[in-house]
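Box 3.1. Reading complex inputs
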Amino acid sequence: MPVTHLDALRFELPCDPKYLVAVRLAVAGAAARAGLTVEDIHDLKVAVCEACNNCIEHAFTEEERASGAARMRITVLVGDGEVRIEVEDSGRGFDPKHVTAAVDSDTPRTEGLGLFVIKQMTDQMHIESAPGSGTKISFVKRQSR
Amino acid sequence: MAIHTRLVDEWLVVVKLAGELDAYLAPEVRERVEEVLGSGAAWLLMDLTEVEYIDSVGLGIMVGAAKRANERGGDLSIACARPNVLRVFEVSGTRDLLNVFPTVAEARAVLEAGRARAATSQDVEGGGA
């Protein structure tokens, strides 16, 4: 049954790691409102930062970052007992097939480690991306029972 | 991020970090670890008992430092007791690789044992030459 979302937070930030602490704080607040446990909240903070790290490191060129054109959009949907997060950019994108092996592996690899960690720490993860078309990484964390 | 390094017994470098090790603070930590490794250190104990957050960027620094230490015949270990930080090592499969222990004493003991093994191995090689 689809979850009714109580709140939706949407914010757009420069692709700059100095904003990661603010992202973690916002996500922790939203996750507490959804009734997630302290452990779930820690997992979600790591997962959202991994998605942002991916955007900061890979989505844009140095020139785009320097000009301020490199931005990431974060959507946090707060439901009863679950949080859904989307981290989106309009950067260079990639073929998701290239990270399938790293993400779906039973054992972590150096390449794609951040995406592997998101998958391990959340209940559902999805990557939408194509070369030249940006990237959207979405994931859901449900309340532990 | 607070970073303190100290040399113990003239062979072990303890790097103590406190705060949140994310992509923003990682360059500062990476630079300090590079300095330590650049000075010739081969045995590193990363004291993360006061680190409140880590992700794959911080893990990358630890894995890189461990590799460098191994290349020069030494090793790296980590002291970390916070469940949320330990979970990142577990989930990423790096807990054993990076010698993660809950206390500084245990993390030091594994390096002492490694150093003793390395010394024995050198003696054997020397004796056979």
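In summary: The interface with chain A takes residues 20, 22-24, 26, 53, 55-57, 59-60, 63, 83-84, 87-88, 91-94 of chain B (CB under 8 Å).
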